[in-house]
Amino acid sequence: MSFKNPFTAETQLKLSPFFERTSKLNESQEWKRWSGYLAATQYELTHDNEYFAIRTKAALLDITPLYKYIIEGPDAQRFLDRLVTRNIQICKVGQVMYTPWCDEHGKQIDDGTVQRLSENKFRITSAEPNLEWIETNSAGMDLSVSDDSKTTASLALQGPNSRAILNAVASDLLDSLKFFWMMDTQFGDIPVSISRTGYTGDLGYEIWMNPKDALAVWDLLLEKGKPYGITPTGLQALDIARIEAGLILLDVDYISTRHAIIESRKSSPYELGLGWAVKLKKKDFIGKKALKAEVDRGSEWAFVGIEIEWDSFEKLHREAGLAPGLPCTAWRKSTPLYKGNEQVGYATSGTWSPILKRYIALAHVKTEYAKENTELDFELKVEHFRKLTPARIVKTPFFDPERKRSCPQ
Amino acid sequence: MSRFDIIVVGGGLNSLVTASMLGKAGKKVLVLEARDQIGGLASTSEFAPGFKCNDINDVVKWIDPRVMKQLNLESYGLELHSPDLVRIALDTQGQHIVFHRDPNETADSIANHSEKDAKAWKAFTEYIDNLTYFLEKLYELTPPKLPNIGLKEAFSMRAMLSPIRRHGTRGLVDFMRVAPMMMPELMDEWFENELLRAGVSTAGIHHLSFGPFAAATGLNLLHQHVHSKGVFHNVHFIKGGTSELPNAVKLAAESVNVEIRTNSKVSAIHVENGVCSGVTLESGETFQADQVVSGLDPQNTFIKLVGPPKLNPTFATQLRNINYRGSTARIHFALNALPEIKGVTEDQMGTIFSASPSIEYLERTSDSVKYGRLSENPFVEFSIPSILNPTFAPNGKHVLSATIQYAPYHLRGMNWSEELKNKLKNNVVNVLGNYIPEISSLIESSLVLSPVDLERQFGLTEGNLNHGEMTLDQFLFMRPTISTAQYKSPIENLYLCGPGTHPGGGLHGANGFNAAREILK
Amino acid sequence: MSTVKKYDAIVIGGGHNGLTAAAYLGRAGKKVLVLERRYILGGAAVTEEIFPGFKFTVCSYVVSLMKPNVMRELMLPKFGLELLPLESTLTPLDNDYLLRTADADQTYREIARHSRKDAETYMRFGPAMGQIGMAVRPILETIAPNAIRPSLSDLGALKKLMNHFQSLSSEQFEYLTKLMTMSSADFLDEWFEFEPLKATMSASGIIGTFMGPKSPGSAYVMLHHYMGDIDGAFRAWGFQRGGTGAVSMAIARSAEHFGADIITEAPVEKVIVKNGRAVGVALENGDEYSSDMVISGLDPKQTFLNMVDESDLPSDFVTDIKNFRIRGSSGKVNLALDALPNFTCLPGDGHHLRGAISISPSYDHLERAYDDAKYGNFSQEPFMDMILPSVLDPEMAPPGKHVMSCFVQYAPYDIKGGWDDTKREAFGDAVINTIARYAPNIKDIILHRQVLTPADMEKTFGLTEGNIFHGELTLQQLFSMRPAVKWADYSTPIKNYFQCGSGTHPGGGITGSPGEMAAKKILGIWS
């Protein structure tokens, strides 16, 4: 059953090198803007199948709109250590590190991954453009910075079957590739790099390639992945998966200091649950002084996972004569959290987790209310009227399968 | 490795003033100078066999009276020569305007051109004098840290009330009105004669990369007249050459056990985790100190010696945004005889001459800066230092030292080659020829100092003599940056004391004096 | 002939500020008369059908600075205020172009074609300037205190401003200081690297001003133009449906709604001053009107040196007014076109014609244009800010035809030898030739052209030297110094004689602000 609708349109937005394929596969023709690119919201008319592809099969996502920069030269590692909060000195060739980076006041600008491609060559990915920040702060160091955003195309292959698919396509086995490591290999005669990273909290990989090979790689993956249930997947499904994984999203869960405008909108890594990624023992880096001071006086805010309790949630709806109104997609509207009469925080994104069967959200709360199991009240609207319903602080990631990190051997 | 309380980087006038004041307060101070002589911009050297020149400054406009007094410079041999005749604005027809210490005499000279202007002259000098009084007080203060000025800072600014008491709020308003003005605006309010208008306007563009049509040349004009006691175009020569000024300060410094080392070029200032702890010399020798004070400009201090990776991003951006853009060159001519200047008598020769026929002339020559080319008809200011100091030249011979604007550091499609310097020299000789017809035949040899030479020889970024342009956006609490205007840098234990700080350029020592006070706080 | 009716206040000049003051006074229940010299209201903000079917926004052409509260309080939308957004700015270059649009992604992509760094910085720059605009706003909304002898309320206002400044971050304060003192080129050099972008942005710093982008002080003029907002969005430019004259007409209708009388073709000869007190006005035709208060919407030179006798004013004040700098620097060329101009860089019709088109390819282009003017000539290759009103509002021209409005700099008032017809036409030709470099078809599609030199503007609109801002926006002519110290609060040394034009704080542009604040000051005195 298929309705063939001739569809032609022009756009002022950027198109990824995969667009020739993705545009034809997009049955809903629902697109979002991602960094000025057209990016599929979902491919099918509903996103459910794509979500379950991430959790039960293998989902293929075009992540080309990510910003990428290559930093190369004798001072590359020294520079990155100045730029980001994690210790890049101990990052080995072939290793990848997730890290935030801050302004000098210790407030977060962006977050992304740093890949060590060779002793003196790194790739850093980010949600927003960072060229200016990188260039101005590398003044006086022996290195070169190049914008790799358009010179490298990338795909994410995420889900329990992703390894099997790659093993079927790549010339090398991926069985020993560890979580947050990467390797170079070929798909036939196409050279690619594969990192065991992702934004789903599941077993998954990201594939980095020359844009000219993009379509060939896409076709190969779809062909060899078919028996494993490979599914082109859009941003809607990804958003649910990343909340389940407790992963933050810039401009949704936090505002970059670059455009926060006011002080209270800014957050430090500590206030975003990324304290683990701040290495105060390493030499001077941007924001260190302020972050150290923050540790000494204690952070004002914490970033937590919350679970909206089912019984009360259901009861409020039943009182209105309704079945519980679950959000069918992830939401991103700031939602107040109360303790008694006082607002002590706000949730920034949330979703019904289809795999966990729990209603979960990510939230900023004042530090004194951030302890696990603290009971707060979550604001919601039932038939136009505001209600409060209990929510509990829980550990993130909400969903953390063993396969995410493990290797077969 | 040796230990000092305080290390002063650079041996210019301000560095020496700071060192002396700190030595006076009992600190163990070491001054490190890169060149073989101290004095920086106040140095004197031999530029041709038997001919000496004041490398950069033939005169000083004013010296901070606090420095004179506290360091008792006169007792260390400083002798100022303050001529009655402070400047001659040259006229091609020989009808020069002669600026005297006494405004009535100046007015007489102006009357040859305009009766109206002659009448206004005295009132004008008084007007300017009243306004400079505000600067005099302001220059003694450490700029407030804005915008978060507390009661304490506000109280420290109370000295500013005295000029208001003396001149009323109208005086303050006039100051606020004149400082941001451009020269033609100010001149329109006072004078009609073009030679006079231009002759006055030269004070507004002194050592600037802008022409007289630039806003806030009013401020620069006032800056030249601080402590001038009503004498417009006031100047002082220094007996024995300009270097005798730093030499006197050096003696004062040594009297309080300051150690001064020349040929000691600092190659790095140590900073770790935002704290400064000492310096390393080019020779590899290192020194530890509780505090380091730099008399160098901000670019040299922070970008070259500390290094960008040690600076926080905001501060680094602020430093990058300081405008230097040196546009002044110097040429020293060795002459085989005393030149004859049309319409100037021999007893008038010991002054400053200015070739500035009209404001339009000055503005046109300044246009060369924005297009990155050489002025064909530059603004030339010159003096003959060998008149006051006969030792500057062999018997019967003389030195003519010229300051030239505009010779931009940033050129387009060319660089400061020997050829270009020669071209500049020829342009200058042509201009001088308008007033000294036989100048070409007098020249034995010459030395051209382009902004690039000034950068190389005197460590001046972009050849800027003021360690940063003297513009309203780099004034007071913005000098050199909003985060460093209190002489203290964002790096702990590292201070600035050079002309890059408040109150700016000139051989007056006020920067060094104020800096020492802050360091001792 | 003597008058029958006595007014609470008479406003001299039916420009938008005069009308605004009248409307505010009327709104407070006062009986007001507005006297306009010309046959048409609006002063420099007029729309005239110079050629049949073609409506020109003769002088000013865009609206960005109109204060939102004025629009609301005077109910201007009800009386015909309809601002259409100008969506983009196109800078044609010789083999390329720079386009900035209302869409952030598109603008990023367009700038990134030239400089990725600038594209990033541009995203930060807008909000940063918006913050500075917010920081400055309280100054603009404060009646400038008397700096010589501040009153108690002046001190209160100053204290409030001090507190406000203390609340700024160091970074904001730094930018603000720089904007108040630097050249727009120097300020922009701190942010951007792509010269056509910088030159185009710096052009806001020279509009209506006798300065080049590299002249210190021009950054403030740039900030002045950044403070405009429409519907809360900073730096939003709009075109009034029917031309800017319709803005004036909306204010006039609002004033009439609030009971004001408006008489056109009624040139005022003199303000009648008795015992140091303004008591009415005498028209050129001999008519006299008496009132408790006379308010001048004219520029300071007209207000004090023409409308009253010098002998009625203190001599130091006369000196201050004589020293007040009003310099004409711009001209205006209005074109009636047979078709749309075709830009080589972006051929054909398109979104880019819905916005501003700026001839500002480089600093050098602007500076050379300035140099010409500095030395007494009009610019051979001028800077231009152009819009096509008929693309936004088809009623501005007959169907299929177009009008083009070109604001041109520099055309100095003090041109060597003075302006005459030959020079005017030569100036017009220089403008057309400059446009033709980027849109070669322009010469073939011109049906009519109207060239206005500063001398024409002085003659037609009564603007001294043809200066659109009633006085240079230099640091020493702002706030408590605009137009003269002690008299910056809209009052004058003559009792009951007030001023409300762009020559008063906060200055020029279609803001309505001087008119509003003058009216509020007067109402404060009356209450």
Total beta strands of chain C:
20
CATH-assigned fold name of the domain at 6-45 and 65-80 and 242-325 and 472-526 in chain C? FAD/NAD(P)-binding domain
Helical element count of chain B? 17
Structural class of chain B: alpha/beta
> Regarding CATH, which class of the largest domain in chain B?
Alpha Beta
How many beta-strand elements of chain B? Answer: 18
Domain count of chain B: the total is 3
Name some characteristics of this structure.
heterotrimer; A: about 400 residues; alpha+beta; Gyrase A, domain 2; Alpha-Beta Plaits; Elongation Factor Tu (Ef-tu), domain 3; 3 domains; six-stranded mixed sheet; six-stranded antiparallel β-barrel; 19 strands; about 20% helix; C: about 525 residues; alpha/beta; FAD/NAD(P)-binding domain; seven-stranded mixed sheet; about 35% helix; globular
Structure description:
The complex is a heterotrimer of chains A (409), B (521) and C (527). By secondary structure, chain A is α+β, with helices and mostly antiparallel strands. Chain A has three domains: 19-63 and 151-233, Gyrase A, domain 2 (2-Layer Sandwich); 67-147, Alpha-Beta Plaits, CATH 3.30.70.1400; 300-394, Beta Barrel (Elongation Factor Tu (Ef-tu), domain 3), CATH 2.40.30.110. In chain A, 20% of the residues lie in helices and 32% in strands. The N and C termini of chain A lie far apart (44 Å). Chain B is α/β, with parallel strands linked by helices and 521 residues long. Chain B has three domains: 2-39 and 66-73 and 242-323 and 467-520, FAD/NAD(P)-binding domain (3-Layer(bba) Sandwich); 118-229, no CATH class; 325-458, 2-Layer Sandwich (Guanine Nucleotide Dissociation Inhibitor, domain 2), CATH 3.30.519. In chain B, the strands form four sheets. In chain B, strands 1, 2, 9, 10, 11, 12 and 18 form a seven-stranded mixed β-sheet that branches. In chain B, strands 7-6-14-15-16-13-17 form a seven-stranded mixed β-sheet. In chain B, strand 3 and strand 4 form a beta hairpin. In chain B, 59% of the residues are buried. Residues 229-235 of chain C have low confidence and may be disordered. Classes of the chains: A alpha+beta (409), B alpha/beta (521), C alpha/beta (527). Chains in contact: A-B, A-C, B-C. At the B-C interface, helix 6, helix 7, helix 12 and helix 13 of B face helix 6 and helix 13 of C.
